[in-house]
Write a structure and sequence with these properties.
Growth Hormone, Chain: A, three-stranded antiparallel sheet, binds the ligand CC(C)C[C@H](N)C(=O)N1CCC[C@H]1C(=O)O, mainly alpha, three-stranded mixed sheet, 3 domains, symporter activity, single chain
Length: 621
């Protein structure tokens, strides 16, 4: 197949072969990222011995940083190194960061007295912070480049294939994250060490590090097959200067004696290339449309916080297995893996068959609406929970009343992360003597156990310990969260997968990665809004907060649909080609009138779609 710029790429079933390496790379990279993230808070808490507040804030700062650094990666890629080299270099930085994390979690390195705890905590803290910084730089930096680089592999005639690519790309993100969030907590639960056995955080970070190396190797192996668009110099510098000039020129000519221009960017025409101005207009149009979008992510990100807390007040007993509250989050990637193919091969074609033109912006609007609906479901579930008046933790604190006249140490067995049965074993120890007993717990229940004065430690104490139920178990089942997960994920498929493709297709050729970074910035801002709203809107009832978020997103959804109505799809390649043709014709003997007419037509083209897929030339929304 002859691709853009005459590049000849191998094809399999109508798809460039190079795509295979890119999606495998994405799968491994997301495994690495989400796997490491899954055990990060526990590492802070139990290895570095930070308190909950410090662990939570460093965790959220890290996540926000991961979605801010795409801007850096995109600028480097589009202006300087090109996407291919940026991905390679930043992947190396990323892999070094992951290795640093794995090394920082080896307690034996500083455990000079061999008691199982590190003796120089500063070493572990500094190394892990350096590791996290490198990871944020790497994962964020490559993210906009990988998606845009994948899009670059398709020819202009392969729009359908490119759309499928973005769906498969999303499947890989979620396949990788699902596997790793299951595997890394299991690895963490193993015991390892040279001098003493401790929870194996080094293995839980080491496997993601290895996957990042695999991601890099896979990407390099595909090297000979990629189409590598050349960067066009310091494009971001030019963009900033051009915008600055347009603003200052407009200000200089603010008096009424100067005729107004169609667009404020046209004030840059006195100094800058018309093609650059047209490209800036394309980017600004899309970025303007992105303004309301962070609200979607604000709701989406609460799966990991508010919804997980909600799950802690619910009954997670599913018969043979008991689901822990934080494990409910895996429902999202599982549903993504099911819904993306269903949407692509059943729902969207069906809608098309019904004669409806379900354009990208309409899909995104429906996606936002579904996310709002998910929060209405969350509110209904919350009301149900409040009515049943259950309590705050899924496995409440258990108290012991010691009737013996000597101190007794109580410890409990580790709860295995996935296939757990809520049977806890307690170990009572006094001096050299110990005994154990087990009890079954209902979710949310709380007990007080009495240690009788006659208890003989050293023998079996299963029968001797009696208990009283202080708090009854939670009765609202966790399965009731499935509808809210379903709606938020269906919303995500319509919103996020479409948004990814939309950001690529509407970006000028030299700013594809920049617009991907703009898209990822909406995720970062959404994360910040969660923190702000949660602090500011301290509502007395949790369900009212859910309704507030649903209403906010609904308002944003209406605003977005109005903005989307006035948006007209463009074909950047065609517009750029026309401008370039016009520069070539500049030497010809055209009279001024004719040229002016052509330029007018081109400007109008910016506001008009030639894209057949979105039906006809004047497609709105
Ligand atoms: C939170 C899930 C594991 C992943 C999520 N469904 C997802 O695909 N994303 C959330 C932010 C954007 C996107 C990603 O690129 O990770």
């Amino acid at each position: 197949m002859v691709n853009k710029s005459g590049f000849n790429s191998k094809e399999v079933c109508g798809y460039p072969l190079s795509i295979f390496f890119i999606v495998v790379n994405e799968f491994c990279e997301r495994f690495s990222y989400y796997g490491m993230r899954a055990v990060l808070v526990l590492y802070f808490k139990y290895f570095l011995r930070w308190d909950d507040d410090l662990a939570t804030s460093i965790y959220h700062t890290f996540v926000a940083l991961c979605y801010l650094t795409p801007i850096l990666g995109a600028i480097v890629a589009d202006s300087w190194l090109g996407k291919f080299k940026t991905i390679i270099y930043l992947s190396i930085v990323y892999a070094i960061g992951q290795v640093a994390m794995a090394v920082s979690a080896i307690h034996d390195i500083t455990d000079t007295d061999r008691d199982g705890t590190p003796n120089n905590m500063t070493f572990h803290v500094v190394l892990s912070m350096v590791g996290l910084f490198l990871i944020a730089l790497g994962t964020g930096g490559i993210k906009p480049c990988v998606a845009a680089f994948g899009g670059d592999q398709f020819g202009d005639h392969q729009e359908r294939q490119r759309r499928t690519f973005f769906s498969v790309f999303y499947l890989c993100i979620n396949g990788g994250s699902l596997l790793s969030t299951i595997i890394t907590p299991i690895l963490r639960a193993q015991n390892c060490g040279i001098y003493s056995k401790q929870k194996c955080y080094s293995l839980a970070f080491g496997v993601p590090a290895a996957l990042m190396v695999v991601a890099l190797v896979v990407f390099i192996v595909g090297s000979g097959m990629y189409y590598k668009a050349k960067p066009e110099g310091n494009i971001m510098g030019d963009v900033c200067k051009c915008i600055g000039f347009a603003i200052s020129n407009r200000y200089k000519h603010r008096s009424k004696q100067y005729p107004s221009r169609e667009h404020w960017m046209d004030w840059a025409e006195d100094k800058y290339d018309k093609l650059l101005i047209a490209q800036i207009k394309m980017v600004l149009k899309v970025l303007f449309l992105y303004i309301p979008l962070p609200m979607f992510w604000t709701l989406f990100d609460q799966k990991g916080s508010r919804w997980t807390l909600q799950a802690t007040t619910m009954d997670g007993n599913f018969g043979a297995i008991v689901i822990q509250p934080d494990q409910m989050q895996t429902v999202n990637p599982i549903l993504i893996l099911t819904l993306v193919p269903i949407m692509d091969s059943v729902i969207y074609p069906l809608i098309k068959k019904c004669g409806l033109n379900f354009t990208p912006l309409k899909r995104m609007t429906v996606g936002m609406f579904l996310a709002a609906l998910a929060f209405v479901c969350a509110a209904v579930v919350q009301i149900e929970i409040d009515v049943s008046r259950k309590h705050l933790t899924y496995f409440n604190l258990t108290q012991f009343v010691n009737g013996m006249n000597k101190p007794v140490n109580v410890s409990t067995s580790e709860i295995f992360p996935f296939l757990i049965i809520i049977r806890a074993t307690f170990f009572l120890q006094s001096g050299q003597l110990s005994c154990a007993f087990s009890r079954d717990f209902g979710f949310g229940s709380s007990y007080t156990f009495f240690i009788p004065s006659t208890l003989s430690l050293g023998s079996n104490c299963q029968e001797s310990i009696t208990g009283a139920e202080d708090i009854k178990p939670n009765s609202v089942h966790m399965a009731l969260q499935v509808p809210q997960y379903f709606f938020i994920t269906a919303g995500e498929v319509m919103f996020s997968v479409t948004g990814l493709e939309f950001s690529y297709s509407q970006a000028p050729s030299n700013m594809k990665a920049v617009l991907q970074a703009g898209w990822l910035l909406t995720v970062a801002i959404g994360n910040f809004i969660v923190l702000i709203v949660a602090e500011v809107a301290k509502l007395p009832k949790q369900w009212t907060e859910y309704v507030l978020f649903a209403s906010l997103l609904l308002c944003v959804c209406i605003i977005f649909s109005i903005m989307a109505y006035f948006y007209t799809y463009i074909d950047p390649t065609e517009i750029e080609a026309k401008f370039r043709r016009n520069v070539g014709d500049d030497d010809d003997d055209k009279n001024d009138k004719q040229r002016k007419l052509e330029m007018e037509m081109m400007k109008r083209d910016l506001d008009r779609s030639d894209d057949e897929h979105y039906k006809g030339k004047q497609t709105k929304m």
